[in-house]
Write a structure and sequence with these properties.
single chain, 377 residues, alpha+beta, Alpha-Beta Plaits, three-stranded antiparallel beta sheet, 34% helix, 32% strand
């Protein structure tokens, strides 16, 4: 949060909404110099006399406030859910039963919501996160002394690039891990683009001279490759399935969360006709989908790799055709609207209701899109 303020986010855009939406507290920012680098430090003072132990429902309920924009509310809910799921796995509980100790405290709520409000103010086209340093040693938590990285951090960073970092201290907290994994569009060792500005956020601890300074840096860049994201590509060759057996594989994988899946005819060893199955997945879904491919196909091996892809920014809006609602998929390259197309499933459903052909529904939908014109852009 402090790094984003140092980057240029107005303090008032955070302090005002936070003071209205969260329990009574004070938040102030001040310049801080570390190793000759001038940054910003955020200090949160709680004014709650007896802070309660909060549950997931309490934290999400606090987001229902007119000062919190809807995108921030959704992101904050996702951060809290990620934290609850990680803690539940660690403690053998359920997300609803988890007691938020450190995260439920007012300073952590300010950290989470303040960071998301700052991101909302900046409106970046994508967020790139470098590998997160873990540290080592032990730390005192609500449950006593625990090892570093904290168990919840490890749960949150599954399939996310990490590095060791300086030893003997905690470098990534559950709050930080949940925030960054929620916000990251992709991960990379170095950003690509042209730097516009940088902001430095100072932590409380003063690092020894042998360690890097206790600072977080945020960089604002322009250019580069907008819409880049990391995906997992899963592949296997199949030569033992009949047409009937292979027929439902793609649909089942899509229902299980694959981003895309395709079967392509292939001519294989021993002159056997077969198929090449290729599945695109989010990195976090990789292990689960690999297992499902084995179960669905009986294949003996699945190749996997992480790969970059360009993905246009997308949004779905709705129009009405003869009283029937149809979703319109819009896609942008930067600020340029590239396409806006009706959802094919909606065209078929509307055709059945209106008793006309899907092609005619598409024609009527395109007329409605033309009427709306620039209000969609």
């Amino acid at each position: 949060m402090a790094a984003l303020v140092d980057l240029g986010v107005p303090q008032a855009s955070l302090i005002g909404p936070l003071s209205e939406a969260l329990p009574e507290h004070r938040l102030h920012f001040s310049p801080e110099t570390r190793r000759g680098i001038v940054g910003c430090k955020a200090v949160v003072e709680t004014l709650e006399k007896s802070p309660p132990h909060r549950h997931l429902s309490d934290l999400i309920g606090a987001l229902d406030h007119p000062m919190i924009p809807e995108p921030v509310r959704q992101q904050a809910s996702e951060v809290y859910r990620r934290l609850a799921q990680a803690e539940a796995r660690v403690h053998g509980s359920t997300p609803e039963q988890v007691h938020f100790h450190e995260v439920g405290a007012i300073d952590a709520q300010v950290d989470i919501l303040g960071t998301l409000l700052a991101i909302h103010w900046l409106q970046p086209t994508e967020i790139i996160v470098t590998p997160m340093a873990l540290g080592s040693g032990v730390v005192k938590a609500a449950h006593g002394i625990i090892p570093i990285p904290a168990p919840a951090v490890v749960e949150l960073l599954r399939d996310v690039p990490v590095c060791a970092g300086p030893a003997g201290r905690e470098l990534t907290t559950p709050t930080g891990a949940a925030l960054l994994t929620t916000l990251a569009d992709r991960y990379g060792h170095a950003p690509d683009g042209s730097p516009v500005a940088q902001g430095w956020g100072a932590g409380t601890r003063i690092a020894p001279e042998s360690d890097p300074p206790n600072l977080v840096r945020a960089m604002l860049l322009k250019g580069g490759a907008p819409g880049r994201e990391t995906i997992a590509v899963l592949e296997t060759h199949l030569d033992h399935l009949s047409g009937e057996e292979a027929g439902g594989v793609v649909d089942q994988l899509m229902d299980s969360g694959a981003l895309d899946a395709v079967l392509v005819p292939a001519w294989m060893k021993k002159s056997r006709p077969g198929q090449l199955l290729t599945v695109l997945a989010r990195p976090a879904d990789r292990e689960r989908l690999v297992e499902e491919i084995h179960i669905l196909t009986g294949t003996l091996g699945v190749r996997e790799r992480l790969q970059q892809r360009s993905a246009l920014r997308r949004e779905t809006v709705q129009i009405e055709v003869s009283g029937v609602s149809i979703r319109i998929k819009k896609a942008w390259l930067g600020s340029r609207l590239i396409s806006q197309r009706p959802e094919q499933d909606d065209l078929r459903s509307a055709a059945a209701v209106l008793e006309i052909s899907p092609a005619e529904v598409r024609r009527l939908a395109e007329i409605e899109i033309e009427k709306v014109g620039h209000s969609f852009e």
